[in-house]
Specification:
1 helix; mainly beta; OB fold (Dihydrolipoamide Acetyltransferase, E2P); 13% helix; five-stranded antiparallel β-sheet
């Protein structure tokens, strides 16, 4: 708790949706947003332990597009969720 007479810093947290374009052998994701911008500096998540394999399996099925939610705060970006998107 911070008294009202004191200032405090609060992190800016940003969530964004990206479509997976490719998954590299080193677990590096190639992502694209709705505007066509690409991002290659995000890896598959290490936690929870099974999420990375679930994302890889969903993407390898090839039947659906796979979308991931990326959360960014204090200079760190991490995949926090995924879903299959019907075409």
């Amino acid at each position: 708790m911070v008294p009202s007479s004191h200032g405090t810093t609060v992190p800016v947290v940003v969530r964004s949706e990206w479509e997976i374009i490719d998954i590299g052998d080193d677990d590096e994701l190639t992502l694209m947003d709705e505007g066509g911008d690409q991002k290659t500096d995000v890896n598959l998540p290490g936690y929870p332990e099974n999420m990375a394999q679930e994302i890889r399996d969903a993407w390898n099925d090839g039947e659906n597009q796979v979308s991931v939610t990326v959360q960014a705060a204090v200079g760190i970006e991490q995949v926090i969720a995924y879903k299959k998107v019907a075409e």
